[in-house]
Amino acid sequence: xxxxxxxxxxxxxxxxxxxxxxxxxxxxxxxxxxxxxxxxxxxxxxxxxxxxxxxxxxxxxxxxxxxxxxxxxxxxxxxxxxxxxxxxxxxxxxxxxxxxxxxxxxxxxxxxxxxxxxxxxxxxxxxxxxxxxxxxxxxxxxxxxxxxxxxxxxxxxxxxxxxxxxxxxxxxxxxxxxxxxxxxxxxxxxxxxxxxxxxxxxxxxxxxxxxxxxxxxxxxxxxxxxxxxxxxxxxxxxxxxxxxxxxxxxxxxxxxxxxxxxxxxxxxxxxxxxxxxxxxxxxxxxxxxxxxxxxxxxxxxxxxxxxxxxxxxxxxxxxxxxxxxxxxxxxxxxxxxxxxxxxxxxxxxxxxxxxxxxxxxxxxxxxxxxxxxxxxxxxxxxxxxxxxxxxxxxxxxxxxxxxxxxxxxxxxxxxxxxxxxxxxxxxxxxxxxxxxxxxxxxxxxxxxxxxxxxxxxxxxxxxxxxxxxxxxxxxxxxxxxxxxxxxxxxxxxxxxxxxxxxxxxxxxxxxxxxxxxxxxxxxxxxxxxxxxxxxxxxxxxxxxxxxxxxxxxxxxxxxxxxxxxxxxxxxxxxxxxxxxxxxxxxxxxxxxxxxx
Amino acid sequence: xxxxxxxxxxxxxxxxxxxxxxxxxxxxxxxxxxxxxxxxxxxxxxxxxxxxxxxxxxxxxxxxxxxxxxxxxxxxxxxxxxxxxxxxxxxxxxxxxxxxxxxxxxxxxxxxxxxxxxxxxxxxxxxxxxxxxxxxxxxxxxxxx
Lengths: 596, 145
Known about the structure:
The complex is a heterodimer.
Chain A: H1 34-37, H2 45-58, E1 70-71, E2 97-99, E3 108-116, H3 120-128, E4 136-139, H4 148-151, H5 190-193, H6 208-212, H7 215-221, H8 231-235, E5 250-257, H9 264-267, H10 269-274, E6 278-282, E7 285-291, E8 298-304, E9 310-320, H11 324-333, E10 357-366, H12 373-376, E11 379-382, E12 385-393, H13 395-401, E13 406-412, H14 417-421, H15 423-435, E14 446-454, E15 463-470, E16 476-481, H16 487-505, E17 509-512, E18 527-528, E19 559-561, H17 575-595
Parallel strand pairs in A: 1-3, 2-6, 3-4, 3-9, 4-6, 9-19
Antiparallel strand pairs in A: 5-12, 7-8, 8-9, 10-14, 10-17, 10-18, 11-12, 13-14, 15-16
Helix pairs in contact in A: 3-17, 7-17
Chain B: H1 3-8, H2 11-23, H3 28-36, H4 44-52, H5 55-67, H6 74-83, H7 86-89, H8 97-114, E1 117-120, E2 123-126, H9 127-142
Antiparallel strand pairs in B: 1-2
Helix pairs in contact in B: 2-4, 2-8, 2-9, 5-9, 6-9
């Protein structure tokens, strides 16, 4: 396998601080990144940003000049309005988002903070630095639209449980996977943060209260409003369906859907565009992160364009925010020759990878669907929100049954007259009719199936691995070996049995259970959330985790990871809201460190 | 006559009453008539003859007996249904298959509450209701009426 350092040509000029001359045919767009990057040369860039970059570099300015690097003075106030002749012109704004093609080949740009990946986490973090004294670069592999050649960098094989194509479950362009996000949101449970004796490797190194502090702001970013998620809030509203199950055994989870779904690349692009101190470089593919001789500090990211332009981004701190699989891949391919990757001294990078499996099975006949809308019509609206009612076993019941966290709701199933007239259809009516003669025949039985979304237990054998095959830049592709243990199937079984029992006890209906976990075939029929959690999990001990409680990679002083890859356990809820909350927490922490 | 008097009487009569109470609603029209004309109306024989026409309910009972072959007798089934505690939870001041039906409905729920659940072709059923279906099957196949 070709090592990343051998992958491409040497970075021209990096050692000497020189610049390769721009190709005359490669003129930058009239609105580009460089005006902001190069401070006072702001107006001339409209005639050719690459030329100005070269000029600025030759001034050998900035505190890092003595080391041969070129510091881009990102704190300079450069205005942003110019006419084609270089004079300011009202209404014309110079974008803070530009293309790597506008940067000289071989150049090293230095920033206070380098964020790799302009997805949900990366954009959320970048926004936190707007208006601060920290000069920030946000690197994005793609542009503003989906491009086949860029997306192909995500291709990889699934070598464990049958999974989706790895280049179909995530998106590699500005806004990241929020570009196809469904928007469904709910907060992680406090239970998710606790060590559960029956779930190996469970427990987070931070308190739930620490996480919850950031939820309200994450909700705002996700355009989810400010209403809490708790059932206490929703249950008192008259337009919210009543919870029909035994509350000593079951509890609710009211999931929320923003409308419209916030595509971070669209709704926050302008924030980045306007920022004075945050730049975004598009089509900037990070090939690897390099460290200094001590191997404790990341010095720079090697970045390449599809036109083989190579630059280096040096920074005081780096945040990796490229998604659950790619975060692992980049750590594994980074570091110095002979290393097994960054932060991987204990072979933990890529391990404990988790997804959210949903499994539809069973046949449920409700006596009177209209009387239990919580079950029969779980989608509803209240207080201006689009919501879905789900249920799950209470934490005490989960502990008693030794189940993983989960939630469930009913989906309409194909209904047939044969079913209604069939034995169970008649049977479920029987007792209800005997108890209440006036309900007879008004609501015929209806048929549903049960969708269970189950937490995947942390499992070191479930992992992201480097493939033998390489991508366009010579980097090994990521393969995914997704593996379940016994708890996932057990949890589905437990919930189904408990729910079937509750339906009967409450006189709501009957359930036929068809789930057969004995063979593992069911694993190939699950639906996936495209939620890539774990892989760079948070743990106080580097033997069991890649990042510490603050998101910093163990053994490295200035590299952090953001996103759901740091989740020690994944819960069952969609991760976007939760990873953003943690990203905001990380931003605060890094900002504090940079301030000091 | 109370449920106890059913029990003290002939097993066959009790079986008929159970089936009348439990299974008549499988046949909607019959149930309507049954529930509104308990006192003066439908005879047990008529009700049971309606029941035994419901082949599908009978099949649930048949499937139950495949897993519980030792319960393949009317006597045994009635005994087990009685043991579900019908008359312990509800007395019957007036003899009525309707009241018996209510008692059965309670027994079914109680089964679920206590975890007395059986698996009949994947369906999670109350043991009592499965036994009532089995009784229907036996009545039909043995022409008990």
